[in-house]
Amino acid sequence: MRLIISLFLLFQLIQLIQSMQVKQALNVFSRPLQLCCNNPKTGFFRDGFCNTNALDAGRHLVCVKVTNDFLKFSKQRGNDLITPIPEYNFPGLKHGDCWCLCVLRWKEAFEAGKAPYINLEATHIKTLEYVKLEDLMKYDISKLPQFQQSINIMNDSL
After folding, report:
1. How many Å apart are CA 53 and CA 152, to the nearest integer?
2. pLDDT by residue (tens digit) across 4-47?
3. Which of 83, 91, 122, 146 could form an SS bridge with 36, CB 3.0 to 4.6 Å?
4. Sheet of strand 117-118: strand arrangement
């Protein structure tokens, strides 16, 4: 009997999680959310996208390219993003990695002048509930020449 109840509860939990997942998430421009990163695999669901649902208490919404300066800042604030944590499927980050960052961590770094650049096309629209678009635009990675080069190289290889 316990097995049947356990299986029933597991099935209900799976249905609840699936119902909370966003089918077609949008970015801050109200267009389809783009892939943030597959290496390392990022996002609350570890699917490469900065998708969210009600279970994502941290709101992993902002697709960033981390810098050493930001990583040091985050560690000083009690959020060590450098050290791997395998049990959470977290590889640890290094300078240049892309990652779906918690929106309030990005906002805190922004206010301290330590915010990393953002891939706005891969940043979830719910970010706008916490940060103004004009502030996000100041850190738009697509305006950096190195980013444009990497996009051209990626497109050439497709």
Report:
1. 33
2. 665 556 556 655 555 555 468 999 999 999 999 998 889 999 89
3. 122
4. 98-102, 60-65, 117-118
